[in-house]
Amino acid sequence: MKNILTILLLLFGSLVANAQNFNFGAVTYDDYEFSKKKIDSNANAIVLREFGTASLQLDDNTGRLELVFDHHVKIKIYNKEGFKEANIVIPMYKDDSREESISDLKASTFNYENGNFVETAMDKKGVFTENKSRYLRLTKFTLPNLKEGSVIEYSYRLKSPNIFNFKSWEFQSDIPKVISEYMVYIPGNYNYNVSLRGFQKLSDQKVELAKECLRAGGVSMDCSKITYQMKNVPAFIEEDNMTAPSNFKSAIYFELSDVQNINGGKTSYTKTWKDIDYDLTSEKRVGAQMKRKDVYKDIIPVITKNATDDLSKAKAIFDYIKKQIKWNNYVGMYSEDNIKKALEIRSGNTADINLNLISALSTANLDAEAVILSTRDNGTVNKLYPVVSDFNYLIARVNIGDQSYLLDASEPLLPFGLLPLRCINDQGRVINLKKASYWIDLKASQKTITSYILTGKLNDNGKITGTITTHSSGYAAFNKRKDIKRYSSPEEYVEKLDERMPKIKILSQQIDNLDSVENTLTERYEVEFTVYDGVKTQFYLSPFFINTILKNPYNLNDRTYPIDLGTASDERIIINIAMPDKYELLEKPKDMAIGLPNNGGKYLLKTSFEDNSISCSQILQFNNAIYPAEEYLFLKEFYSKIIQNQKTELLFKKDSK
């Protein structure tokens, strides 16, 4: 999936013809008439041309080196579905002392009217900024006067103090691109590791020498001028069951390896894991918090007073932290201040909470470690060389006997040893205060398991009355508990559930183990629903009214990235309905037994009618958390067969004898 290029910056590549920026507002009739059939007949919008440059420049005001990035794009809008491409969001990152900024923003819409192009420039008052988090701001704007057939264009300059990562470039987006070009100027004394990710290949690339591109410390430096070009880039279509799109989109990334200092010597930025271990264990917001035993030394005996062994001791501490500190909805691998403050104010980010957990476990003389990871929506970690900024999350690991348990106390509804799915992403790095760090797999310790049992009877008035009992465990229980807890009471949840199921009326309910997260969640509902009105000699009854699969989650002709469910799953549905006397079964859905390759899963359906009783059993299993892209079409066909069969019904006829 990842095509890694290590580029020696002073080597020359192949030629790129006339790679350069284009004039703003120079919209042509060819732009307006561009046929999407040339690249994607299903496209709602297409990038006609995109150009970007990035360079290191000296800021005259601060005297610091900064990264200057210019971005210019022109897009053809074909229909109203393509209007969303006119909603632009530019992320800007910040830290405690410095932040990125945007200037020279221009944006216009061009419409062809009466043989001429009419430009509608965006009012600068339409630009606004949203503080997304402590470290991220979003600049947002929308292009004006949109019509089917409009051509939109915008450009801006971004200045960034972050020269370590240079500036990545996405050749691929959610719409096709005719041409996307990126030109970078890198001073000769700077050496970057460069990686091209994704499945699309560069159309061309060129490396040239740019003389005296930067002057710093009274010394002029030459630059490597590198141009990357990609043509006829297909849209990247996001689909269900995938991790971060950045893992799979075709894009180019830069990591600063080393700098040859003007005064001699070399500063290396590509660190070893030994360097990272030292940095993190010495870091006041990570290692220093893991070492603290003053916070919990007096209360650990109280927390663990009923514990009989190390496992029950760990569970008691885990439960205590979950109750004492509420997640503020910020993720992080560093404490925002310190663990004592988070405990005092009873609020913190994920690192605050889990560093408290590690400290408490260690104070109880348990073997606790930190694990840093990248969440599913943050992308996978580059393992070729350590880059700590790839990680964005910290959890706890406790080793008891020959077992290790991964813990995240930010989610109070999670049982001991079960991570939230956001953390189930490839591998994490274990940080230990006394020994070298190492990789571990991040896998779900439990399946998503649900069973539904309906026992009922069809009455002479055409209504079925009975009981639906649902048992949920693993991630199914966690998700259901979260859903119920969104409401002020279980009764309100059931009320809304009743509203969402107009064909089924809930007469009474009972929910067990809602707060006992280590146990199976059980729901029991007395229900009633109508099959037919009045007296019927013949009627249809669908047995697929519980968790019906209405839509295939897989609709692409091909998928180049894995299907990542996060966890294996098992769903079972059993329906038993007693019928009135003197009915015979004329039609029923076909019994099915279909499977996925390599024992990847199965769907079983069996329906029978004996002794005036309908019996229907369904089993849907996915045995793997991740399926390779090569098995995508099997999954697509698997769902298609299930959906097609679930469109059929039972047909009953009253026996006239």
From TrEMBL:
Secretion signal span: 1-19
Keywords from the UniProt entry: Signal
Domain DUF3857: 68-207
Upper taxonomic lineage: Bacteria, Pseudomonadati, Bacteroidota, Sphingobacteriia, Sphingobacteriales
Domain of life, source organism: Bacteria
Keyword ATP-binding among UniProt keywords: no
Pfam family, one: DUF3857
Protein name, as recorded: DUF3857 domain-containing protein
